[in-house]
Amino acid sequence: MGTSFVCPRCGNSDPRFLGYKNGEVYCRKCISFRGEEALEKKGSPKNVVLSLDYRLSKEQETLSKQIIENYDKGIDTLVYAVCGSGKTEISYGIIARSMARGLRVGFALPRRDVVIELYYRLKSAFPHNSIVAVYGGNTTRLEGDCIILTTHQLYRYPNYFDLLVMDEIDAFPFKGNDVLIAMYKRSLKGHCVMMSATPSEAVIKEFQGEGHAILELRTRFHKHPIPVPKTITVPSIFQLLFVIRRLRVYGKEGKPCLIFVPTVEDAELLFQKLSMFVKGGDYVSSKRRMREAIISKFKKGGYRYLVTTAVLERGVTVKGVQVVVYGADDPIYDSAALIQIAGRVGRKKGAEDGDVFFLAKEESKSMRKAIKEIRFCNTFL
After folding, report:
1. Tens of pLDDT, residues 147-183
2. What is the per-residue burial (b if ≥16 Cβ within 10 Å, else e) of 78-94?
3. Contacts for 124 with CB less than 8 Å, ≥ 6 apart
4. Which residues contact 58 (CB under 8 A, 6 or more apart)?
5. Whether pLDDT at 35 is above 90
6. Which DSSP symbol is given to 85?
7. Residue 109, SS3?
8. pTM of the prediction?
9. Which of 361, 350, 296, 277 is nearest to 319 (CA)?
10. Cα-only R_g, the chain
11. Please, what's the b/e burial string for 195-233 (b: 16 or more CB within 10 A of its CB; e: otherwise)?
């Protein structure tokens, strides 16, 4: 049997991932990505009203106009902007313009939790348009004026999107996933807007090429510095004591706190220990049942603290939140992850400051790199 087969869904041609059934070749690499695909409907112009209860900053407005100009010239754009700069709002202009023209618009992110949150934000921003969320377990409706979806669901939309906005492109599980990257490229009929606070060198190099452009925004919309993490190097037992003390302080001050841990097992174990000394908390991870409900309760002030894995590393904004990274020297934390975690703090106007603590047995290269990058961004103020 020959090995010249190229999978039409993910582009795989590696014979190690090819199988044969009834004499027909199939791809094992993307075999889980099967299901109904969106219809090839021709779009029609839409009435679009962008409804915001705040004004974009001057920098946000400038970048928004530049994205539209790039799109009209057939140029793909990478928005390289710090955590809390308002990347999502920068994309509203091109989304509104594309919907008004009847173009097919998508907004893809790697994680389901962030898709759900963004869905409600875009429904509020575009109250007269059909905003649809597509993710695992929610695939009944596949089409609308703007489709918010996980990158895993892009397989349903071959050669479909005239505009595809991609956020958190450096996040798991999209980062470095050949199958998901192939599906993203397969779904793109027109042009894309990529967004990230920590793009990889490969992505930056790609967008320095012809037909691409990079737009940078190194300051937050409220013009306050990003809180610089403080490193605390102590043995594990003292890390636990430190967290207990900080939670008691934050409890008296009425400040919520996120404690990040490397693994699912760490989340449950650390919460069991903390709950014996500090009440009013919970934990979340990718395996935690009712995760969305717990996160929602935390955002509404129902919990004083949450122990969390990387599920809350991105796309979450809670006013006044403080952050502790427990075991920050764990190899799972590269500098990009630590920058994203630190970026949870000080995002809201009126609560621009806050604590970020890196707890570790010893300072890692990733910790030093993350702190250096945050300090560098703060020099642009």
Report:
1. 999 999 999 999 999 999 999 888 777 888 888 889 9
2. bbbbbbbbbbbbbbbbb
3. 51
4. none
5. no
6. S
7. strand
8. 0.83
9. 350
10. 22
11. bbbbbeeebeeebeeeebbebebbbbbbebbbbebebbe
> CA 268, 269, 272, 276 torsion: positive or negative?
negative
Q: Are 90 and 107 in contact (CB under 8 A)?
A: no
Contact 78, 211 (CB under 8 A): no
Q: Return the biggest CA–CA distance within the chain.
A: 70
Give CA–CA dist 94/67, Å, rounded: 7
User: Is the pLDDT reported for residue 289 higher than 80?
Assistant: yes
Asked if residue 96 lies in contact with residue 50, where contact means CB atoms within 8 angstroms, the answer is yes
**Which pairing describes strands 230-233 and 322-326: parallel, antiparallel, or unpaired?**
unpaired
**Cβ pair 361, 234 in contact under 8 A:** yes
CA–CA distance, 135 with 125 (Å, rounded to integer): 21
The dihedral through the CA atoms of 102, 87, 352, 277 has a sign that is positive
pLDDT at 22 over 90: no
DSSP class per residue in 211-267: TEEEEEE-S-TT--PPPPPEEEE--HHHHHHHHHHHHHHHHHHT--EEEE-SSHHHH
Containing 323, the helix (H) or strand (E) segment is: strand 322-326
Residue 274: per-residue pLDDT:
98
* pLDDT single digits (tens) 294-321: 999 999 999 999 999 999 998 788 999 9
Say whether 23 sits in a helix, a strand or coil: coil
**CA-CA distance, 19 to 3, in Å (whole number)?**
11
Residue (of 329, 333, 309, 330) closest to 259 by Cα position: 309
- Residue with tokens 């975690």, as numbered in its chain: 341
